[in-house]
Specification:
Residues 30-59 are annotated as: NMP. The protein is α/β, with parallel strands linked by helices. The protein has one domain (2-180): Rossmann fold. Helices cover 57% and strands 13% of the residues. The protein is built from 9 helices and 5 strands. Strands 2-3-1-4-5 form a 5-stranded parallel β-sheet, sandwiched between helices. α1 crosses α9 (168-180) and α2 crosses α3 (44-55). The protein binds adenosine monophosphate.
């Protein structure tokens, strides 16, 4: 199963991705987690990403796509994966389809986690990550609206909508139901 998780920041994609990756037996690949890991290890990639993340802006696509491409080359991703946080722009989506085409594969589905802005702001303020200040939250929501939301149309043929406003358990069972249909 090759899946992408789409949705605004704070939609609970990371939590759902971890549960879903477990049930499907595929790796959970989160670009945000990969960047945070590189920042804590003080790598060059981490240094390149940090200022953008702190500001709530997108890390340049060249840097991000290269990191994803390398991750998808690893053995555990050969038979499937769950991409969380990538692609975030139409340009990135086009790069992803080229990467997969070269491997002779394609995405099965794109899960679109639907949640209101009030709920995402509440969730982000509650989790208290270092880039979860009010200013960066506002920037990230704006980036989502401008750059990421167009992917819902881009992926119209393979999109699966999930209501993401309930409890963690409700959302993960609706995800599995939606994928079954
Ligand atoms: P996330 O954990 O998905 O909320 O991502 C946290 C931050 O990492 C974002 O606000 C961006 O600065 C950066 N980031 C994660 N994924 C991407 C991506 N696909 N393209 C550019 N920047 C990204």
């Amino acid at each position: 199963m090759r899946l992408v998780l789409l949705g605004p920041p704070g939609a609970g994609k990371g939590t759902q991705a971890a549960i879903l990756a477990d049930s499907l037996g595929v790796p959970h690949i989160s670009t945000g987690d990969l960047f945070r890991e590189n920042i804590s290890k003080e790598t060059d990639l981490g240094r390149q990403a940090q200022e953008y993340m702190d500001a709530g802006k997108l890390v340049p696509t060249s840097v991000t796509a290269d990191m994803v491409s390398k991750r998808l080359d690893q053995k555990d991703a050969a038979d499937g994966f769950l991409l969380d946080g990538f692609p975030r722009t139409v340009e990135q989506a086009e790069i992803l389809s080229e990467i997969l085409e070269r491997k002779g594969t394609a995405l099965n589905n794109v899960l679109n986690y639907q949640v209101s802005e009030d709920v995402v702001v509440e969730r982000m303020l509650a989790r208290g990550r270092s880039d979860d200040t009010e200013d960066t939250i506002r920037t990230r929501l704006q980036v989502y609206r401008d750059e990421t939301a167009p992917l819902i149309d881009y992926y119209a043929d393979i999109i699966v909508n999930v209501d993401a406003e309930g409890t963690v358990e409700d959302i993960s069972s609706s995800t599995l139901d939606a994928l079954d249909r």
